[in-house]
Give the backbone structure.
Amino acid sequence: MSRRALPSFLTALLPALLVAGCGGASAPPEPPLAPAALQAVVEDPGVNRDKLARAVDTLFTADGIGETRAVVVMHGGRIVAERYAEGYGRDTRFVGWSMSKTVTAVMIGMLVADGRLHLDRSPPIPRWQRAGDPRGEITLRQLLQMRSGLQHKEKADPVYTSAEVRMMFLDGRDDQAGWAEAQPLEHEPGRTFEYSTPTAAILSDVVARVLAPDRGAAERQQAVSEFLRSRVSVPLRMDSLTAEYDRAGTMMGGSMVWANARDWARFGEFLRNKGSVRGAQIVPRGWIEFMTTPSPRAPDYGAMTWLNRDSGGDREVLFADRGPKTLFAAVGHLGQYVLVSPAQKLTVVRLGKTDEEDRGALVDALARIVVLYPR
C-alpha cells in the first residue's frame, strides 16, 4: 500500500494537535490591565506600552514587595510613566533616607570645584588635626568612598548598638557629626570598605565648616540651607527639595533630604547628564564620573553612589546580572531608589516602604522595567 502525503493544512496543524493530544496547553493570556495602570504610561514610552504598564503595575500590586507609593520613569529626558498610590501625589515630599548621601556628595563636589575642599587632603575637622591623632590621615576621597576606617558599624545587632541608630536617635542625636567624628579608627584609613551613615554626617559637617566657619548652629543651618537652595534646588528646578538639621545646625545629609517624586527624577536626570542641566554645567562632569567609578575597596560602590556591579560577596543592592554595568543608583532605607542608566537614557524612581526580607523581590520588579529599554 503506498503512502500518501498529508494535506498541507493538516501538516500545519500537526504540531498543535500533538501538543493538545499530549495534554499540553499554551500559556493563558495575561489578564487585562486596570485602566489606572495603562493611564499611568504615555502613548509612546519608547517601548511596548502594555509591557511597561504591567511592569509598573507590579510594583503597586504584587505580593511580597512592600508598599510602593510613587513611581516615575523618564526616558530621553521626558516622563513616560508616573503613578502614585492612594493618598500620595505629585506634591508629596518623600524622605530619601540614604539617597540623601548622593545629594551630599554633589554638594561636596561643588565645594571641590570651587577650590574650597581638596579630595586627597584631610577635611577641616579640628579634633582630627591634633598632633598624633591618626584620624588626621583620613582624606575626603576616603570618606566619600566609605573607606575612612572609622568604627561605624551599620546595622549591628542588637539594633541599639548600631552606629546609625546611636547617632540619629540615642547619644549622638543632638550633634550627629560630632558623635561620628569622635569614633576611633577600626582600620587603617583607605584599606576597608564599610558602609556608614555617620560618614555622611561627617561630610555634612564639612560642608557647614566651609560655608560658616566658627559659627553657631543657626548660622550653620542657614548657610547650608541657602547653598542647597541656590546651588542645587534652583538650577535643577527641584522646588520641593529640603533637608532636616540637628541641634548643632548640621544637615542630616545621610538620611533626611526630602523631595517629591518628580524632583527625585530630576536629580537622577542631572546625574545621567553628568552634572549638566539645560546646557549649564552645575558640577563638573569629572565629579559625576568620580561618583560613578568603583571604589578601590568595593566594585559596586562609587562615591556615595551604588553601582550595578557584582560586589564580589553576598551583597546585592542592584541587579548586576541583568542591567548594564554603567547603571548606577541612589538607594535608601525601605526601598527608595533613583536608578540611572545613561546607556538607556533612563531614570527610574521608586518610593515607598519595603522591609529588608522583601528587598530582593522589589529589586527584581525594578529590573523588569529597566530591561525593557534597549541599551
Remarks:
- The longest helix spans residues 217-236.
- The chain has two domains: 31-91+308-375, 96-256.
